[in-house]
Amino acid sequence: MARDVFVSYSQADRDCAYEIVARVEARGLAAWIAPRDVAPSADWAAEIVDAIAGARVMVLVLSASSNDSPQVRREVERAVSRQVRILPFRIDAVLPSRSLEYFLSAQHWLDAFPPPREPHYARLCDALEALLARAGTPMPQAPAVAGGPRFDGAALRHLTALLADEVGPIAAVLVRRAAAVAPDWQRLTAALAGEIASEAARREFLRRCG
Question: From the first residue on, what is the mean pLDDT of each consecutive set of 10 residues in the chain (210 residues)?
Fold first, then answer.
C-alpha cells in the first residue's frame, strides 16, 4: 500500500519516531512505520522494502544512535535507489556518519533541538506538506525529437555534477530521465531545477548551468 511518508529510525529513538507519525497522521498524511505496519507473520525485510518503494518521502530520524544503525543505513540506501526523497530530522547535534554521509551530505535537514520538540514537529509537517505538494506535480514531458541525442555527453556529465551538489547521487538518474524527453537545454535545466528544494539553490543551479 502506497504511503506519503516512511519513517526510518533506530530503536533508541522509537518514542520520537512514533510522535512524528502521530503528528503526520494528524495532518491527514499517510505514514508507515515498523513494527506497527508490518503485517503479522510477514517477511519483515520484504515489508520494509515494499514500504520504502511505495513511499513518497522518507523521514530519517537522525541521531547518534541512527548514525550507528546498519538497518537505518540499509533503509536510506534503498530509498536512494528507489528515488524516494529523504528528509533528515536531526534530533541530536551530530553530523551524518561516514556510512550515511554519501547519501545525505547534499540533503537539507531540519533540526529538532533545543527542546521542546513540539514546534519542531510542526515545522517538519509543514516541510512535508510542501515537499509532497511539489512531488505531486508531474515533471513536464516533451515529445522526443528525432535525429539522435540532443545533448552532448560532456555537457550532461557536467550538469549531473552540478545537480549532485544539491540532491546527491540520485542526480545521475534525474538527468538521464529528463534528458530523454526535454527538447532543449533550457527546458532540461528548468525541469532539473524543480528537483531542488531551496529557491536560492535553484537559482544558483540555473546560473551555473548557463
Answer: 90 98 95 94 89 95 95 92 91 89 74 93 93 60 41 86 80 79 86 82 87
Task: Determine the Cα–Cα distance for residues 196 and 193; give it in Å rounded to an integer.
Answer: 6
Q: Are residues 91 and 177 in the same domain?
A: no
The secondary element (H helix, E strand) that includes residue 178 is: helix 171-179
> Model pTM greater than 0.90?
no
Whether residues 106 and 25 share a domain: the answer is yes
CA distance 93 to 90: 7
- Residue 135 to residue 56: CA distance in whole angstroms: 8
Domain shared by 35 and 92, yes or no: yes
Helix (H) or strand (E) holding 7: strand 3-8
For position 103, which CATH number holds? Answer: 3.40.50.10140
